[in-house]
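ingest -> validate -> predict -> emit
validate: passed (alphabet ok, no gaps, 259 aa)
predict: started
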Amino acid sequence: MKIEKKIWPKYFDKVVSGDKTFEIRLADFECKPVDVLILREWDPETKKYTGRVIEKEITYVAKTKDIAFWPKDDVDKYGYQIIALKSAFKDLALKRRSIRAYKPDDVSDAVINDILSTSILAPSAGNLQAWEFILVKNAERKKKIASACFEQDFIMEAPIVIVVCANRKKSGSKYGKRGEEFYAVADACIVSAYIQLAAADRGLGSVWVGAFNNGALKEILKLPDYVEPVAVLPLGYPAEEGHEKNRMSLNQVLHNEEF
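emit:
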């Protein structure tokens, strides 16, 4: 079951960042573990929803009447419930969807830095971290990037675009041709996936764009010869839910011992 509730901005940000992993609510509604709590940010000054939403799976519910916060009559009638919120990797993987429509809301530098700081925890060949990030906010440059991506105009709607690149020279310095042609690209792919998961964890949507004119994109971003673009990642608060994941069964792709 899904349950929707308001949440003030200062608390919303704490839930998104992972600092707040519980909710204390008046027990005037029923909920149980495995239910999903949908928290919609509510601005008490404008008395409007901001459009930001985050979903959390409920793992534990405790009820009490020992906390003096809401009106006594309501507490006497309903009591309290303290809701523990789950933030597990599988839930995050399920939450991430390809999003191609974005709200115009700005994404703060703090959120961007947190996403990228998390992403660089990704593994890399020889721990060389052969990746480079180009962060793009300029509207004209985003338009050029969309054009280089064969007119995928939705890219222009995203508040920010992160272009993840492979530093072939860095990986090649240790692994030679194999590093230049494979390891650097693999590193960039892994960190791109981490960016998308970290963005989803912060309530942002993204999509991996891999169709682009390589030469045109390098020229737009002024990339040196040894740096290759691997993924164009538009990021922003979602203006759509995205499609549910349809995946083949594990049995269709799992091979024991040999193909």
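The chain has two domains: 2-87, 109-236.
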